[in-house]
Amino acid sequence: MSDILKEGKFVWNEKYNIVKEIDDQHKQLFAIINKLIDEINSTPKQESVNKIITEILDYKNNHFATEEKYFHQFNYAGTEEHEAAHRYFSEQIIKINDKYLGDSVSLAFELIDFLENWLIMHLMTIDQKYKQCFLDHGLR
Ligand SMILES: [Fe+2]
Ligand SMILES: [Fe+2]
Asked: Which ligand is nearest to the CA of 25?
């Protein structure tokens, strides 16, 4: 996944495409991570990091609900496993947030680490598995 990073920022590549609605949401996560990287390149301020965490929570509520809506609608075979991964994400974000309460620098670094991993392991791996199912049901 060496081409995902360009000059320290995460860049979208066509090969991550699934269907448009999902891609637009996935691109939002790239933007959030890049914002966090900007934050780290200066001195992460608690207020800014808190704002980004709120954004991550809003993002995941909206995005996971979208994916899971289609899983149920299309009777997707991997639903259970995928929803468990989404629950794990939510738990981890809360855990990291609680662990570094008041230490915005460590919090920002830990979040980036987790989100980078998530991009590679989830968005580029597990999410790709439902692509064919969504296409078969007419999404584009
Ligand atoms: Fe996703
Ligand atoms: Fe997902």
From this structure: 1
Look at residue 13 and tell me if it is in a domain.
no
Q: Give 99 Cα–ligand 1 centroid separation in angstroms.
A: 25
- Number of neighbours of residue 98 by Cβ within 10 angstroms: 9
**pLDDT, tens digit (0-9, with 9 covering 90-100), for 38-96:** 999 998 899 999 999 999 999 999 999 999 999 999 999 999 999 999 999 999 999 99
**By residue range, what is the domain housing residue 88?**
2-6+21-136
Q: Domain count of the chain?
A: 1
Supply the CATH number for residue 44's domain.
1.20.120.50
> Which ligand sits nearest to residue 86's alpha carbon?
2
CA of 87 to the centre of ligand 2 (A): 10
What are the CA-CA distances from residue 3 to residues 26, 83, 94, 120 (Å)?
17, 28, 30, 12
